[in-house]
Amino acid sequence: MELSPYVDRLRSDLTDAAAAGGEETRVVAERLMLALDPATRMVLLEALSQAAAEITGELPRDAVDVRMVGREPEFVVTHVGDVEETAPITAAPLAPEPPAAPAPPEPPVDDSLSRITLRLPESVKTRAEEAAAADGLSLNSWLVDAVRAVLDGASIGDRVDLRLGRHSISVNSPTGGPGSGRRPNRVRGWVS
Fold first, then answer.
1. Phi and psi dihedrals of 15, rounded to 5?
2. What is the pTM of this model?
């Protein structure tokens, strides 16, 4: 999606409004818009990202992501049903395989979205980005899937396969699992 026409229109509108104040005001407005170009693009990108997140919240299984291609955003729709099923890839041996779990419940339709700030070590962030890219997802969508997978019935020590088994995480805690009110002591993960 080309943002330049919107930024140019804003610049033109501001310049036209400033022209009523005289030549000096118009020149100041033009300089101000040149300085504000990156901030204007960022605000537009935030609005597009929020819109994509709201649309994703309304879709039962698919996701809409905004990705940057050069200086321009691009919308990407990920269809979960299009991902072919593969066996989970593990980097280290785990406990014996649990019995086959029933089909996961449909994700609830969220009424609203919440923003959080998650601070990760750079190496973990890089691995998560690689896993998300391998699944054709944004990092945010991949993290949402990971949290949903754990909250939708994974018990302590269970492997949770994300995106039909391509990547796995394991939660181990002697203090309690999801919904116990206690924080887990350790979260492990691996990606190929």
1. -65, -40
2. 0.39
Burial profile 45-76: b = 16 or more Cβ within 10 angstroms, e = fewer: beebbeebbeebbeeeeebbbbeeeeeebeeb
Please report where in the chains the tokens 């973990």 appear, as a residue: 124
Question: 5 Cβ partners below 8 Å, 6+ apart?
Answer: none
Q: Alpha helix (H) ranges present in 20-62?
A: 23-58
pLDDT digits (tens, 9 = 90+) for 140-184: 888 888 888 777 765 544 554 554 444 444 444 444 444 444 444
Say how far apart CA 163 and CA 142 lie, in whole Å.
8
Mean pLDDT confidence for 103-110: 58
Cα 59 → chain centroid: 15
- Residue 150's closest CA among 172, 121, 120? 172
